Amino acid sequence: MHVLPYLIAAYVFVIGCYGLATSRNLIHAVGCLAVCQCATYILLLAVGYRDGATAPVFSDIQPGSRPVVDPVVQALTLTDIVVGATVTALLLALVVQISKRHGTVDPDELRELRG
Amino acid sequence: MADAVVVIALLLVAGAATAAVVNRDPVRQALVLSVLGTALAVLFTVDQAPDVGLSQLAVGSALTPLLIMLAVRKVRRRPAESGEDGEK
Amino acid sequence: MNPRARLWLVVLGGAGLAALLAAACLRLPRFGGGHHPYGDRAVHAALTRHTANTIASVNFDQRAFDTMGEMAILFAAVLGCVVLLRQARDEHRARPRPAEVAPPVRRYALVALPVALVTGLYVIAHGQLSPGGGFQGGVVAATAVHLMYLGADYAALERVRPVEAFEAGDALAASVYLVLGLAGVPAGTAFLANTLLPYGTFDKLSSGGTVPLLNAAIGMEVACAVVVLLARFLDQAVEIEEESGK
Amino acid sequence: MKAPATLLAVGEVLAWWAALLVLWLTLISTVHTLEWVVGACAAGVGALAARAGRRAVSDR
Amino acid sequence: MNGWILAAAVVIAAGLGTSLWGVSTGPLKRRVVAQNLSNAIVCPGLLLLAQGYGRTSYVDLALILALLGPVGTLVFARLLAGELADDPPSARVPTWTVAAVGAAVVLVLCAVTGPGRAMVKLLVVGALVVGGNLIASRALSHGFPGVDRG
């Protein structure tokens, strides 16, 4: 249990990389990159977790009444998710542009075109 | 008890990530990514990070699927010569 | 390189990476441990500045400069999409036919749109109190607008969404963030230092000094950015077609 | 625009505004003056969006 | 107090596990139904977790999921209308089962919470999740009869 979240994060990262390397469709590759990003969220939040603690949000509990988890990593992850989504959008825009210019979204065919 | 639910959420995320990689068709992958987003939101909630969970739900439930599906639609509307299945 | 050799290379590299990651995992502090020096200090700092949601305090007060960087990434990504997905010279626009939508679905979209919009605004406005904030609420509000496309059709969406206004709003929100950061400088404090406004009463909308204002600026920025982003994608997927003789 | 149509439009927006303000009040936990002001503004935005959405679908 | 977390664990493990299996295997029409049901079953799970951790502010998560989950399903229903038109998905039994679970969880939590603002909020979430689930199911089967492009 003490290392399980870290191992899951590593597993998700590796499986995402595998999908990225073996992908035959650039849209699928962008999805695999999103999977890789998930690994960073899992890792960051696992680092900040504390047993028996609750969220550091004091709108409905008294400050100091319960132990709280680490807010710094949560803030990092939070912005990461929204910015990650727009970066995904940018990559998808690139894929659309590639499909327009070369008529395919298969990385292997693209390599042949380049010669 | 709290640990058990964390383990369940972690295993669901790992399963969803695997499914998202092995489904090679972008449309099917988008469906799995949507479920992966929901599983991640559950994981973030049990990790006591509701802010992050909200962020994931806002992005993963509608925005990412919409972006991927629009990209798929645009790519598939290419002329039939490219080998993609064209307009229905 | 043939695909088979490449697969072997991927497997080899992946195995090495996995071994290194697993070794690193075993040396990390144990999951659920009680030693969080930065976290404890961040919580303390947030409480002294009367911000109930520590994460909002970290984002918009203690690390406000980093959030400005995140905002810049967001802005640049949207700019990149706008440039990449512009209408090229060999393309033309075709009006999509109006869509036929089942009445219950259309009614649901029309009711859910304002409800989701108000919920998004609630998430933004209460960012410094309860879970939420500009990043999340902005995405919710922007998604709400696109119910018009899902529940009706693209023409209906275009009527409720003037893209130019959202582009201007995007830039305006980004500059508001900068101006709020600079506002303290003439008074002799640092850029983005939270000393401009009184900290207010704990757990009230006006608490936290500049946190609610920066939060609102980010909310507007994210909402406008997502709308502009989706507008480009929808244009490409629905309206823009290539000249057939290309 | 004719007077009855204007009246109808104002009524529609007001009805949405009231409903969304009630929604806002159920979402929040403590009520005070600033909360009312912000809630009223948000509900106003939502009400205008609701009317714009309905018009975009029905007027064509 | 831990009973709530246990209930949430059961709901999420069973519901999301089944949805995951449904969404990653089988024909497209089964996958979209599983995607819809995953949202509708996780939402009561999140409400149970909020109750289990004793944090009313976690209810916002369920609220956002109840609002945006059906929107995500509408995305798929809208953009896959062509593929789904020939062989529309109909999953009456799972859909109503999930709706019943959602309604039951919300009613139990309302009874525990007692009258007040929090109860109204729970009812709003319940109405959104059950209504959204049913509408999204409707949208998947013949929701967009005249959409082929645009």
Automatic annotation (TrEMBL), chain A:
User: Keyword Metal-binding on this protein?
Assistant: no
One Pfam family name from the record?
A: Oxidored_q2
Superkingdom to which the source organism belongs: Bacteria
What is this entry's stated membrane topology? Multi-pass membrane protein
Where primarily located? membrane
Alphabetically ordered keywords of this record: Cell membrane, Membrane, Transmembrane, Transmembrane helix
Q: State the PANTHER family in the record.
A: ANTIPORTER SUBUNIT MNHC2-RELATED
What family does the database annotate? Answer: Belongs to the CPA3 antiporters (TC 2.A.63) subunit C family.
- Protein name per the record: Sodium:proton antiporter
